[in-house]
Design a protein that fits this description.
alpha+beta; Alpha-Beta Plaits; 7 helices
């Protein structure tokens, strides 16, 4: 391999800059086009990942060729270490294929709240190899896509309707039937609580403190479970305090 001239360095720099500009231009175009035609953000992100790695591969081969490195020889030499490369790359390939299956099956999309392996968060990016989540306390979690094909995950926002359950202990001195009816009435009046299905109260067990029950309501906004649970809890507390007075 001959020495690298100033011209070679200039060509390499132009190639790298061009690759960067092409990538930025194509990703901007895919986002604009996707938004215009209503394409899911998940698909756009995966497509941009494919574009990115394709441009990197082409630009790298052009720059190597410019400095006199024989790309053909490198490709042929991979046959000698093909097994080692295969083992090293199998996780990447597995993650990529799993990502394509998630995209095809529409198991979840960017913006959904999912839970897997005890981790829960909102999907902010689905990439070539990993899916990125943001947790409720603003932590970033990266999960290899292969985990979604090898394990069970929960999509908590796949459906608009969401049940909110609140555990309650009803003191024995309160009239049970009247209290159950009052709990259903006040919870149905909380703004945002769905009328269908109607709120219900399920008796769980009898304890020393009173009757343990669960108040169930349904809401139309799966992102506001904690907010609605808090509002319902305040109303239930007022009810029980008034009845105990």
């Amino acid at each position: 391999m001959a020495g690298i001239s100033l011209i070679d360095l200039l060509i390499i720099g132009i190639t790298a800059a061009s690759a960067f500009l092409i990538f930025k231009g194509l990703t901007y175009l895919t986002r604009r086009t996707g938004k215009k035609w209503g394409v899911e953000l998940t698909f756009i992100q995966v497509l941009n990942e494919i574009i990115k790695y394709s441009i990197i591969a082409v630009a790298a081969s052009m720059m190597l060729h410019e400095i006199g490195i024989d790309i053909t020889a490198i490709i042929l030499s991979l046959g000698v270490v093909g097994i080692a490369v295969g083992f090293a790359a199998r996780d990447t390939l597995s993650n990529f294929i799993a990502g394509l299956f998630i995209l095809a099956d529409k198991g979840f999309k960017v913006g959904d709240e999912i839970e897997i392996s005890g981790k829960q968060g909102r999907v902010t990016k689905m990439g070539f190899r990993i899916t990125t989540l943001i947790t409720a306390d603003n932590n970033v979690i990266t999960i290899p896509n292969s985990l979604f094909s090898n394990g069970i995950y929960i999509n908590r926002t796949a459906l608009d309707m969401r049940r909110v359950g609140l555990d309650i202990t009803i003191p024995y001195k309160l009239e049970l039937e009247d209290t159950l009816k009052a709990l259903k009435d006040i919870s149905s009046k909380v703004e945002g609580v769905s009328k269908e299905p109607n709120p219900n109260v399920l008796i769980k067990e009898l304890s020393e403190e009173g009757v343990k029950a669960t108040l169930n309501v349904w809401i139309d906004d799966p992102w506001k479970v904690a907010e609605y649970r808090s509002s319902i809890s305040m109303e239930v507390k007022k009810l029980l305090v008034d009845k105990n007075a």
